[in-house]
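Students often ask why inverse folding is considered easier than folding. One informal answer: many sequences map to the same fold, so there is more than one right answer. In these notes we will look at a single instance of the problem. The structure comes first.
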């Protein structure tokens, strides 16, 4: 299955009997599906269907959908209606003002521009016409969601490559830590023997056998074999998730937390500067992985 990013944008347009329909839809990161709508007055009836369409398509993300409705150029409009009685009253008033105050005579365009003189009646919308318009609007919204889904998938595939690269880097660093000379048995034995010798030289009262036991215990405690094995397992799990695809964002986020835990433990248990440096580099890569995972559905 494809991967989807949670960020994307799409636009879709349609027309219906002279009405121009335009949808704009965008999404950003979110823990669940949250939908915010901007609908023209009178279109609130569309909200349940729009929300349901988003929830059926997507698993995560904050969505914002905006609908614009207008009239197409050249579309027929109802003829304007002149309130003749009101116009007659205004014309008479204008004549009286002209006689009384010697004002300029009123013009036809001036009178028609006054509110209430010239009105464009709204078209009467039947239930059938409204249902037909709603059907076109919802179909256009479906096209917008198609575009948004494609945009999220395109970015998701780019994220797949980035995440695969991070997993490769984590694996390479894990193998470097595993092969570091400081982890060779002879190196560990030599380091322990030197530490015991220095302690005995400092104080002859110390028990050599006890010192050897304590040194062996600390060496065992500092071993990073388990961390290396778990890091390898997590890398394999991450690659499996990327191969399967789908809504794996939460699973990869949990896996990134496990990577972070193991890299922290590796740094704290390391008793060699080289391994500590590898652990710090590993933490940096894991942070990059976690940041990118936040964008996945």
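Output (designed amino acids):
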């Amino acid at each position: 299955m494809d991967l989807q990013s949670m960020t994307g944008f799409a636009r879709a347009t349609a027309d219906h009997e002279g009405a121009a329909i335009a949808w704009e839809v965008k999404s950003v990161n979110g823990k669940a599906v949250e939908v915010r709508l901007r609908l023209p007055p009178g279109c609130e009836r569309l909200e349940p269907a729009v929300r349901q369409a988003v929830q059926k398509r997507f698993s995560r993300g904050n969505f914002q959908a905006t609908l614009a409705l207008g009239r197409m150029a050249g579309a027929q409009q109802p003829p304007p209606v002149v309130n003749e009685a009101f116009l007659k009253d205004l014309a008479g008033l204008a004549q009286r003002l002209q006689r009384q105050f010697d004002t300029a005579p009123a013009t036809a365009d001036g009178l028609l521009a006054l509110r209430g003189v010239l009105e464009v009646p709204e078209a009467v919308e039947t239930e059938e016409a409204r249902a037909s318009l709603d059907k076109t609007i919802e179909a256009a919204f479906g096209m917008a969601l198609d575009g948004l889904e494609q945009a999220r998938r395109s970015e998701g595939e780019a994220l797949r490559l980035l995440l695969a690269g991070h997993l490769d880097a984590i694996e390479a660093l894990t193998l470097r830590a595993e092969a570091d000379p400081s982890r060779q048995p002879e190196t560990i034995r030599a380091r322990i023997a030197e530490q015991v010798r220095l302690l005995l030289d400092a104080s002859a009262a110390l028990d050599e056998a006890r010192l050897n036991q304590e040194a062996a215990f600390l060496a065992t405690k500092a071993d990073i074999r388990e961390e290396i094995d778990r890091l390898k397992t997590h890398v394999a799990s991450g690659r499996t998730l990327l191969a399967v695809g789908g809504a794996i964002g939460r699973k990869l986020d949990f896996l990134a937390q496990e990577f972070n835990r193991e890299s922290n433990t590796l740094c704290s248990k390391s008793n060699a500067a080289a391994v500590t440096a590898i652990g710090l580099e590993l933490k940096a890569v894991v942070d990059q992985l976690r940041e990118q995972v936040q964008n996945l559905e």
